[in-house]
Amino acid sequence: MDRRQFIGMIGGGAAAFLPSPVALGQQPDRKRLIGSLNILAEDDPESRLRSAAFTHALQQLGWTEGDNLRIESRWAGGEDRLVTKYAAELVALTPDLILTSGSVTVRPVQLATRTVPIVFVQVVDPVGSGHVDSLSRPGGNATGFTLFEYSLSGKWLELLKQIAPHITRAAVIRDPTRGSGIAQLAAIQAVAQSLGVELTTVNALDVQEMERGITAFAQSENGGLIVTSGGTGFHRRAIVRLAAKLRLPSIYPFRYFAIEGGLAAYGPNTIDQYRRAAKYVDRILKGEKPADLPVQAPTKYELIINLKSAKALGLEVPSAILARADEVIE
Hints:
Elements: H1 3-17, E1 32-38, H2 45-60, E2 69-75, H3 80-92, E3 97-101, H4 103-112, E4 118-123, E5 142-146, H5 152-163, E6 169-174, H6 179-192, E7 198-203, H7 207-217, E8 223-227, H8 236-245, E9 250-252, H9 255-259, E10 264-268, H10 270-285, E11 301-306, H11 307-312, H12 319-324, E12 327-329
Parallel strand pairs: 1-2, 1-3, 3-4, 4-5, 6-7, 6-8, 8-9, 9-10, 11-12
Antiparallel strand pairs: 10-11
């Protein structure tokens, strides 16, 4: 055996005993799993826009569904009773993270797991609801994006009064079992007297009960409708149709109500929250903790005016309101 053969034999033998990259802790890339719990229905046009915005934003950050990412979604379709079931199903899949949409979706997931990271969107008052310790330091396994401060609710009545000055009565549709429904009503009540508007509440728990309440309210003149967030989005088509039928000028919390024919909407851009949520998902998947990521408020609020609906109601929207509008539907 010559010297060259001897060195080759020694080198090959040594290589056979070297630890592999996996043994050294360099784990091979794996496909990450995200669970997604949504309060709306899967075939809702708003759901499709939200999902598209979220997946597109993730793709821009290097996460492609079917490649290095899988998203397992559940859609409650407005049925609160399904949320707990779907929360348990998603946690059982041992995902890397769960995205929740809507205030009622966060608590069931937190009860099912205190370890899986949660990113929430469309949540009102996450501190008051007990989802996080504080906005700046969430402190647990959840963080995300709020909808708005309760004071915004008073602006709904102010805008409605500007668009339809003849209104002296307003029915407030809200879910009385949710803290957000109670607080939004309180904010509206705080400005009602100064605007000369008498308020009536209509419960949004049951669609038939809600329709009866709106119909009874419309029997008297000079009435308008304020629809709060929380428990109303899934029934928006029924609400908008009834408001048009009863000729009630109405204002809503989100753009998708105006798209369905609502007179006006003022609130945060719901699609933008999903784009921003993708950035938090990216950071958590790369090792950051929800406890260290502050809960963020909306950065975009939008005023939408549906001129077609205004015309049907015989209303002339003031030019000052139209100039402020982010979108005018004609």
